[in-house]
Amino acid sequence: MEPHSTDKAPDGGWGWIIVLVSFMAQLLAYGQTQAVGVLYPEWLTVFQEGKGVTAWVGSLVSGIGLVASPVFSACVMNFGARPVTIFSGVMVSGGLMLSAFTPNVPFLIFSYGTVVGLGCGLVHAATVTMTCQYFDKKRGLALGIVTTGTNVGGFLYATAQVELMELYGLEWCLLIVGALALHLIACAGPMRPLHVPGYFLKQKAALQRAQEQLPALPEKPPVTVDPINDTGSDEKCLTASSPKFHSKVETAHNEKLFIGYNLLKVIKDAQQAYSKYINATSRFLQDRVFVSLCLSLFLFSLGASPPVLFMEDVAQSKGLIEDISAIPLVSIVSITTGLGKLVLGVVADVRWISVMYLYLFTLVGAGVTLLVIPTCGSYISLQIISVVLGFFSGNWGITPYITAKIAGLEALSQAYGILMFFGGLGTLLGAPVVGWFFDWTQSYDFAFFFSGGCVLLGGFGLFLSLLPCWGKCKAEELESDSECATRCQKIASVV
């Protein structure tokens, strides 16, 4: 299938196939990472490490892919979503199968946390970029459906991994899940890009330049063979004074010059691309709303990501349940997060609703819910809290929509990569911080008070950046500058 060369998003047609395969890709890649809370108590039992150290496995697998989002976005833009998704399938599957033979937690941090996490980050970058290319007016709904695959996968994988561990043990559970992850390669097939990836355009342009600049080789003069003096070898006839010898020396010299010129051209193009990326990044970081959004996402990820990993352990540490239930709390959080993504994605497409204030509402709701967790005294109350927290955590589905509104569609990939870097950094630190709080106080209460406070602080900062007084102050500043310039012109005219 050849890529289409159109600047307008189709908003349908083949785009719905992209939504379907992206949904399945996120289900296969992120399903097992969303259900890592089911594996966490088992790892604590097997390796006998502290909660803070073991929590690095879950935080890395969820956060490292987001931290590397700027790099992954550049990979998608240069190589295309299809090869990136194929490579990610190999990484996710290989990391899961390697984790089945891990001897200790440090190796598990590498195999499960790092390798699987980077593979999932590649899948996320590829699926979100492809969906945004194919949809404009229905982008909120399309992104909601795609990102829901993460949570449907978490719901299915949590229950499946519990059954697999009971039947076959932890090692075979990871091997089976790793084999399922190989289906990511099949999901890459229908990912037909709307535009030719940048890498292929560069290769085509370089080939054309090479053909234009390559010096024409001199024609070989006709060779007359003397049957008497012919030795059967032309190499013995080459001397420093022969024209053929000079021709070969000149050709070799021209080829060396051409290779050096191309090398300098590549270095110059790389420097220009790097400086362009730095300039665009600095422009984004000068935007008040975008910076506030990055900080709020960092604080939200720092506070709201640990419940996915620790919710089961919270119930067991409080004595509310002895073993993992048939429908784990992780499954409840995952499926309600998917529902939240769908609902918030549909609401985001409503014209009279501000997407930024909708996101702000979810931050406040999630922060208050986290503060309530330490007061839960029954397993049913924890289930209700999981439903509410999962729904508000569905705001991840509208972050690409918000980024497109702020940065525009052309700069979406780069701006979204920067935003996901902050989100991944918070996810990376959230679970170990909560684990260390438990190791220090032997209770999760203070940890969740800290988490709720972080989320509310991020919401308050975003609210301040959205106040209309900033626009008024900017208008007054521009007006004062124009008045000052007018006065200076009057003084100059008088003088």
TrEMBL record:
Domain of life of the source: Eukaryota
Topology in the lipid bilayer: Multi-pass membrane protein
Keyword Ligase attributed: no
SUPFAM superfamilies: MFS general substrate transporter
Transmembrane segments: 12-33, 53-72, 84-101, 107-128, 140-160, 172-194, 289-309, 329-348, 355-373, 379-403, 415-438, 444-467
Entry keyword set: Membrane, Transmembrane, Transmembrane helix
GO cellular component entries: membrane
Record GO terms (molecular function): monocarboxylic acid transmembrane transporter activity
Localization per Swiss-Prot or TrEMBL: Membrane
Pfam families, alphabetized: MFS_1 (PF07690)
Domain called Major facilitator superfamily (MFS) profile: residue spans: 18-470
Cross-referenced PANTHER family: MONOCARBOXYLATE TRANSPORTER, MONOCARBOXYLATE TRANSPORTER 9
Protein name: Solute carrier family 16 member 9
Species in which this protein is naturally found: Paramormyrops kingsleyae
